[in-house]
Amino acid sequence: MDKKRIIEWLKTEDQSALDDLWRQADKTRQQEAGDEVHLRGLIEFSNYCRRKCGYCGLRADNQSLNRYRMSQDEILQCVEQAVKFGYGTVVLQSGEDFGFSTEWLEQIIKEIKKRTDLAVTLSVGERSMEELSRWKEAGADRYLLRFETSNPRLYRRIHPPLPGEQSDRISLLRRLRELGYEIGSGVMIGIPGQTYGDLAEDILTFQSLSLDMIGVGPFIPHDSTPLMKDFEMSQGSPEQVPNTEAMTYKTIALTRLHCPRANIPSTTALATLNKAQGRELGLERGANVVMPNLTPPEYRAMYEIYPAKACIAETAEQCHSCMKNRIRAMGRTIGKGRGDSPAFLHGSGKEQP
Question: What is the DSSP string of 40-84?
Fold first, then answer.
């Protein structure tokens, strides 16, 4: 599918055409990734961040946010819950926090691998090759690094570089691939200034990178960020991509068609827009992963990338039970084991020309 056709799909409001798109995406998901829905236990272990991203509530300039770092013992208690719930993966996620050492995270990874058979996914921002290599050698399996937009101009505006540094996440994803990680990335939908052509290019970039994991979700504006004002000003522009539930489903479905063997989550941001059915509709339109939260409730509300996030008052047990029941009610199977990306397992983790 070329860029022009993707844009046509993104813009269409024809419900019969969209119903056909949902069917195509769901059929491709079933054929290439199976009926299992894999659960990734999310541990948001630190909300410190040195970045000043224009969209994120964790940004360094947000002085109203209470900051926290979980201890190693607290993290390992969450890992024990993941094992008890039958998850195959834990995701260790934080802001770009340089307050913890390379060795500290290395020790946690080694301890998880010593105690469990879980896959370990890291999502800790832009780090040096030395750190990334050490964490891979310690046992980390996967790395998530969202490039947020493939438009370089828009990227620089929403993700300003630090003094004396350059930020090139697409290049870093390639280096992560060279280190042997399963690589995951993604974008926001409806960033102020994002055009339909930009979003179409994002989908083609997913394909060209042969990503193993792809997360897409709506841009949800946060009062403590510069993009809140930009969001208000951008509404009504004919080429501005809306940050809607419908546009998120379109992007999930088109991503599945372009990257048939990737693992694609139905995200918490989608559930935030539609608490009743958001995750389920995402799973019916191309997604095959969900990420129940293991973060202790006393920390969840402080990991506020965007406001009003779904399920922040739930315990890990409540989140697990809810997710399990929702998946079974759909007639889908809860995945067992690590749930490695079919793209990675089939050795297709090579960039396309």
Answer: EEEEEEE-------TT-TT-TT-TTSPP-B--HHHHHHHHHHHHH
